[in-house]
From TrEMBL:
Domain of life: Bacteria
Any one GO molecular-function label of the UniProt entry: oxidoreductase activity, acting on the CH-OH group of donors, NAD or NADP as acceptor
PANTHER family for the chain: 2,5-DIKETO-D-GLUCONIC ACID REDUCTASE (PTHR43827), NADP-DEPENDENT OXIDOREDUCTASE DOMAIN-CONTAINING PROTEIN (PTHR43827:SF3)
PROSITE patterns referenced in this protein's UniProt entry, alphabetically: ALDOKETO_REDUCTASE_1 (PS00798), ALDOKETO_REDUCTASE_2 (PS00062), ALDOKETO_REDUCTASE_3 (PS00063)
Transmembrane segments: none
UniProt protein name: Aldo/keto reductase
Record: residues binding substrate: H112
Annotated family: Belongs to the aldo/keto reductase family.
Originating organism: Cohnella candidum
Catalytic residue list: Y54 (proton donor)
Pfam families tied to this protein: Aldo_ket_red (PF00248)
Location of the NADP-dependent oxidoreductase domain: 19-262
Length: 275
């Protein structure tokens, strides 16, 4: 299948999710996030990923409305933060997020982290929002296989997405295989290792294909069926990150990148976090 910037992944419920999007973590509310989202939409991105914890949902919504792009052509994700988790508090958190976004609905709503003793009740609220048609799809973020098994033993609606840290130094093959088996779409955050791109093997591939290291890594994500949301506030970099559809990594080069795994996290461990 030839990938393009318009390529989508079909979720368990038939909803189509763009394969490439813009992440806006640590993007300042106001002009900065509005410029970043506007640049991404102008470059052909149709997926924007935010969260209540990011503090920039209002700017994301403002840029979306200003774009003039039909709402049904866009895919907007947000997430419930850890201190908002629980059934009633999650329903309240969603109303606050949706008010800030200023949209009629959210395309994907996620449980941001697997907070012990809370994520099942939190997810039950997501199921209620889904039943009401307030969200088109629901899922989780930073869930390990054992979290997913525990949740699926209690939920009515299987999570459609699991958004996790995934990159060449943290390939997450076992979790990726588990999610594929269950039909759960994997999405990667921090796909570019927070800019730590000085990996010799990646540099060699960049030279071989006439691409940047970032483009090689993003193409690796896309070719293994992972939705990815690189973050940038730089218009040129946003466009560069989208310029990954005119080449294809050879199978042996996919294997080479897979072999770089060090199980190295740049973010928190989902089994050991304190926020």
């Amino acid at each position: 299948m030839k990938l393009t910037i318009d390529s989508t992944a079909e979720l368990l419920n038939g909803v189509d999710m763009p394969r490439l999007g813009l992440g806006v973590w640590r993007t300042q509310e106001g002009d900065e996030v509005e410029r970043a989202v506007s640049s991404a939409l102008n470059a052909g991105y149709r997926l924007i990923d935010t969260a209540s914890m990011y503090g920039n949902e209002a700017g994301v919504g403002s840029a979306i409305r200003a774009s003039g792009i039909a709402r049904d052509k866009l895919f907007v994700t947000t997430k419930v933060w850890n201190n908002q988790q629980g059934y009633d508090s999650t329903l309240k958190a969603f109303e606050e997020s949706n008010d800030k976004l200023g949209l009629d609905y959210v395309d994907l709503y996620l449980v941001h982290w697997p907070v012990k003793e809370k994520y099942k009740e939190t997810y039950r609220a997501l199921e209620e929002l889904y039943d009401q048609g307030r969200v088109r799809a629901i899922g989780v973020s930073n869930f390990q296989a054992h979290h997913l098994e525990d949740l699926m033993g209690a939920c009515r609606i299987k999570p459609m997405v699991n958004q996790i840290e995934l990159h060449p130094l943290l390939t997450q093959k076992k979790l990726l295989m588990f999610c594929r088996k269950e039909g759960i779409q994997v999405q990667s955050w921090r796909p570019l290792m927070q800019g730590r791109l000085d990996v010799p093997a990646i540099a060699e591939l960049a030279s071989k294909y006439g691409k940047t290291p970032a483009q090689i890594i993003l193409r690796w994500h896309l070719q293994q069926g992972v939705v990815t949301i690189p973050k940038s506030v730089n218009e040129a970099r946003i466009r560069e990150n989208a310029d990954v559809f005119d080449f294809e990594l050879a199978p042996e080069d996919m294997v080479l990148i897979d072999s770089l795994n060090e199980d190295r996290r740049f973010g928190a461990d989902p089994d050991n976090f304190d926020f």
